Structures are given as structure tokens and as C-alpha cells.
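Review this chain:
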Amino acid sequence: MSEKPLAAAAAAASAPRFEKLSAVKGMNDILPPESARWEWLEDKVRQLMARHAYRNIRTPIVEPTPLFVRGLGEVTDIVEKEMYSFEDKLNGEALTLRPENTAGVVRAVAEHSMLYDGGKRLYYMGPMFRHERPQRGRYRQFHQIGAEALGFPGAEVDAELILLANALWQELGLKDVRLELNSLGQPDERRAHRAALITYLEQHQDALDEDAKRRLYSNPLRILDTKNPAMREVVEAAPRLIDFLGEASLAHFNTVKGILDACGVAYTINPRLVRGMDYYNLTVFEFITESLGSQGTICGGGRYDYLIEQIGGKAAPAVGWALGVERVLELLREQAPTQAPAPDVYAIVPDAAALPQVLSTLTQLRALGVSVQMHAGSAESWGSMKSQFKKADGSGARYALIFGGDELARGEVTVKALRDGAGGAQQAQPLATLAQWAITLQSQH
């Protein structure tokens, strides 16, 4: 063996071998073509929010830990078990990856005095983080879309937000989604109910699981939201918060129901619906499906009139909701399949020498709004016409543009139909009139 192969083999043997890295469990890559479904949903949401005059807000992913401890409640599952919290080594500050975004939006509104000139309607999209066991529709990095209306005390805004979510389901073509409503009243009403609830649960401690016993005196209302079937009978017979509501709270709730009735939106009153955060009061609601197993809640929210003051802002009423993007997309896969996006045109280039002229033409088409995918080869092989046509067909494009040498010499390009039952019909198109052809193509969308 010569010295060169030996040297090459020795170099290869001594080269460092890097361990293959993977994503963190429960934090997933979103790849094409699946990412197109996310873009489609986000576009639908942006259009709907614009029609309802909701404006986009973008808050940091990392927030001060006290924001969530104070806002969500120290004895909630999120704060106790699920937050990704850490200490900033630079300054010792306690920080947390946001587990939800209502608290962040409220913090931003208070910090920037956004309500000085009246109420604000806002929406957001983005990732949230909770350290829990990954399962269908529930991940450690998950995504939410939320709508928040701050500075509006009236029940009509509660109803507006419910109608906004309901309009989204219609826009997406989702079925098998039902609405549940409840009212949590005001703090004094909850305190009276809490006392009665603790007294009742103390009489049934033998039927409580460990989680319920732990919450009995710290957060008994959350016991009503248990998923333990063994406790169902005890929970069903427990005192109902709605029976402790005063005249003003009942009037607020009845106004919400009256508007939904007038708009033809069906709902069920669920007196055990409490939601998972401590900041709610008055109206709470969830949109639920039976198509996703145990992860059936796809959107939930309610009124949170005291949260702004809790985090140090000037007291102001507010109401909002958040939906789980992964769960909505899972439901869409089952109920309303969408096609993967495809370009309008695939450019076939027999000779790489023609690329400058080809790219000049494709740039003009793209400027006119035409989606174009250009063939790309390699230094070793540009690709035969047969292989290029195979890729053009596989791309899903409606047309192939063939930039042959003879056609270009005549100032033309060949347009070949690949879809729409055109049977491969093709025609010569002068480059000078290709823009007009592109405009016609766009009008057919």
C-alpha cells in the first residue's frame, strides 16, 4: 500500500467522532410539509383577528418567575410541578420559560401603561413550556394562540371572545366541538363557597386521593376538576359555586348566555368547570371535543379582573382565551384534511448554461405572485429531461416551464400543463407575454 492511502486512513481514524444530537424529549421539530399546515392555521387566525379588530402582541419567552407564581397561584399544578425555572448566572435573577401567556400579556400591558387611553383587544401566537410527560396533543414545548380583551368590564366582551373562538371553528371547518360554561363569581362569593366545600370534603376524606388531600386547605376548588373516576361521586355531590353567586354575578352570567342564545351558539352549563389557574373570576368556558381522547379541551379561558393588580399594575378588568395549536391541528387532520402546498410552476432547464436568463425570467414571475420551483442539479450531474419532468410532477406544480435552448433562441418558453385534467397539453409562450400569462394564472386561484 502506498504512503498516501495509509496517511488518509490514519487521518480518518484519528478524526473526532461527534455524537449525534437529538431534540429534547417533548420538544418537536415541525418540518415541511407539516409546517405548511401551521402557516395555514396562523393565516386563518390573523384574518379572523383583523375582522374582529384584535391586534397582535409579542411578549418574551422568558419572564420573571414571580410573574407566574403570583399570577397563576402557588398551589397550581403549573407552578408546583411543570415550570421550567432557572437562575440567571449573570445576576442571580429567577427566570422561567413561560408556561402560558396571559400573565405575560398582562405584565406587558401594565408595564407599558397600554390602557391609559382605553381598553385593548390583543392576540398572540407562540411556544409555551411545561415539564410534563409528553403524550398525544400535549408536549413540553407546545404552542398556543390566544386572544385577550383588557379594560372592558362588560359581559358582552366575554360573549364576544366566545363568539370569536366559535367563528374560528367554523372558519376551519371543525365539527364535534362543544362549549361548556360556568361562573366562578367574585372573591367574596368564592370564599363562602370555599368554606362550605372544605366542610363537605372533610366529611369525605376517605374518598379523596392524595392529590385532593394535599389541596384540601390550599386550593379545594381544583379538587372539583379532578380526572380521578373514583372521586366522581363525591365531586358531583359537592356544594356548587353557582349556588353561592349574588345578584350581580348572576346578571353578568345571564347576559353572556343571552348573547350566545341570540347568536345561536349552543352551550352546556358545567358547574364543576373551574380551569387550572387561580386568576379567573365570573365567566369561565372551555371548547371540548371527544375526538382526542383524554386531551379533549382545545380552547379555554374566562374573565380575570384581578390579575393586573396582582402583578403590580393599576386594577383593570380583562377576559381572554387560549387554544392549543397542536390539538387543533390534530383535530383538523381527522376532520378536515388539507393538501400539501405546491408551486404554481416548476422550471425545467435542459442546459445549465441558460440559468442567467432563466433566473431573470423566474424573478419576474415571482414578483407577479407566481410560486416557482426551479430545478437544481449538482456539479456532477445537472439531470436529464426525463428526471426533471419526474421531479416537476412530484412537486405538485400545475405547470412546467421548459427553458430549452431552441425555445430561448426564438424568445419563447414551452408551457406544459401537469394538472387539472389538461392531459399534458403544451404550448409555446413568448417571453415577452409571459407576464400576461402569469397574471391570468393568478386570477385562476
Notes: The chain has a mean pLDDT of 88. The two ends are 65 Å apart (CA to CA). The CA atoms of residues 305 and 317 lie 4 Å apart.
